[in-house]
Automatic annotation (TrEMBL):
Record-annotated PDZ domain positions: 257-345
Species lineage: Bacteria, Bacillati, Actinomycetota, Actinomycetes, Kitasatosporales
Name the UniProt record assigns to this protein: PDZ domain-containing protein
GO molecular function, one term: serine-type endopeptidase activity
Organism the protein comes from: Streptomyces griseoluteus
Alphabetized Pfam families for the sequence: PDZ_2, Trypsin_2
Any one of the GO BP annotations: proteolysis
Residues forming coiled coils: none
UniProt KW keywords: Hydrolase, Protease
Length: 357
């Protein structure tokens, strides 16, 4: 899997890897699990009352929510999804479905996979909605909570199909909020820079993408999307670092898709350019070079042209295309910013009123 970065200040970075839209289909088994099943029974120590109460709460949440989490097969890949509303809609990650248009969906109660069709994919926020062709009776839509009220330290459960193991649950806490994370493209997804993500210590493994991050009130507070890798470990997993798209953004995007068939009001700021990273003579990143300028867009109105190299947006330095996307992710449409750029070895500044992506 390809790696990307989460910004931590300008220089500090942690590599981030997409949590699987690319688990190959097929059965999965665990020799260790079989050994435990066939081995002798073991006695369990009695749990303290407080732990016993927490265990009961976990089991209640799992019973309430797991039936709303589905497994999605998109071509050869497997991922997860969450039932949204009572009409057969399912919300998932755009990178889970890739470029596919039709899918096979396994619900908690379906003996055989159900067929589903793409409604709309919005890669800019890594969200998509698909719809069951024939929604069966007894679907249980998930309840989405208020992600704006999420606090660090809250206990959460991650539900999905890691490594193709349907209806799996891991637990952890909310580690941080408000993270801006850049994910790579590939497998039909162009990648995205996503603001305000929820960081969690709950294990996010390949196949969890598109599933549910749930609080102890049985409310979905996020859609698990990314797990992290450590560059110092040759791309090995960085345990306890995962990211979820907040429920508030999921409701905004999914609601628009279901109502209109597309995203009509993203709330994401845009310059109206496509860019690529350029390097200096020492092969160090040196800015975001403008490749194309949208006709009549914000950058065009401010006088930017193809070939200009953007080096700063407002007070934030820009060394790469990813950094430009990350800075824009923290802005709002209609906001005025100063763009610093280089043209023909001369430095220029322009005030730009940001548009909407």
């Amino acid at each position: 899997m390809d790696a990307s970065r989460i910004r931590a200040g300008r220089r500090g970075a942690v590599a981030v890897v997409l949590v699987c839209a690319a688990v190959l289909g097929g059965g999965c088994s665990s020799p260790a699990a079989k050994a435990r099943k066939d081995g002798p029974p073991t006695a369990q120590a009695a749990l303290p009352m407080a732990a016993d109460d927490l265990q009961d709460q976990y089991q209640k949440v799992i019973k309430d929510v797991l039936r709303s989490v589905v497994q999605i097969q998109a071509g050869p890949s497997l991922g997860s999804g969450v039932i949204y509303g009572d009409k057969g809609h399912i919300v998932t990650n755009a990178h889970v479905i890739g470029s596919e248009k039709t899918f096979r969906v396994t619900t908690a109660r379906s003996e055989d996979p159900l067929t589903a069709t793409l409604v709309y994919s919005y890669p800019e926020q890594d969200l998509a909605v698909i719809k069951l062709d024939k929604a069966p009776a007894g679907l249980h839509p998930a309840v989405f909570g208020d992600s704006d009220k999420v606090e660090v330290g809250q206990i959460v459960l991650a539900m999905g199909s890691p490594l193709g193991l349907a209806s799996s649950v891991t637990q952890g806490i909310v580690s941080a909020t408000g993270r801006t994370v850049s994910e790579p493209g590939g497998d039909g997804s162009p990648g995205a820079t996503i603001p305000n993500m929820v960081q969690t210590s709950a294990a996010i493994n390949p196949g969890n993408s598109g599933g549910a991050l749930v609080n102890l009130n049985s409310q979905v507070i996020g859609i698990p999307t990314l797990g992290a890798t450590d560059p110092g470990m040759q791309g090995g997993a960085a345990p306890g670092i995962g990211f979820a798209i907040p429920a508030s953004m999921v409701r905004t995007v999914a609601g628009q898709i279901i109502a209109t068939g597309k995203v009509t009001d993203s709330g994401r700021a845009a310059l109206g350019v496509t860019v690529r990273t350029v390097v200096d003579e020492g092969y160090r990143p040196a800015g975001a070079a403008v490749v194309t300028v949208q006709r009549g867009g914000p950058a065009a109105k401010a006088g930017l042209e193809a070939g200009d190299v953007i080096t700063r947006l407002g007070d934030s330095p820009v060394d790469t295309a990813t950094e430009l996307a990350a800075v824009l992710a923290g802005k709002k449409p209609g906001e005025k910013v100063t763009v610093t750029y280089e043209r023909s070895d001369s430095r220029h500044r322009a005030e730009v009123t940001l548009g909407e992506q």
